[in-house]
């Protein structure tokens, strides 16, 4: 899978979706106007349908939005429409793990600091049970630094843009460890094909 081609295809699919939703949003009141139905029930139904179309469009934009920028060992990123910008200090990243593939991929970043980021949470046993493939690597890191507190962040939104962000995390976070799943997804982001 060529990630740049997949990103272009994803962008075209999203544009097509937005066009279809806008056409649907125009057809519903147009059908009411063309049939000359002036009934409170149908007008209320049309208003509810328009609101649902707007919510679906906002949800789609929210789930595929990912912006990030690297500057001076700091990776600032924003996922979704309504989230604040977040910050990752690349030297402090201890482990990167991925779960899933393509649009459903989750990127899990484990860091030693929680610097100006409210989304980082302390690593707990529940997280390690939920992601058992990551727990082995985490235990190795924890054995080396038993007194440090580690924090985690899960990136779920962003669609296929998470692959480019993962490739850049691999470039900038030179001291961190990577699980086998993360390495496979990094290879995909670099253009290698996986059998």
Automatic annotation (TrEMBL):
Domain of life: Bacteria
Membrane-spanning ranges: 17-34, 40-58
Keyword set, alphabetical order: Membrane, Transmembrane, Transmembrane helix
UniProt-recorded name of the protein: Transmembrane protein
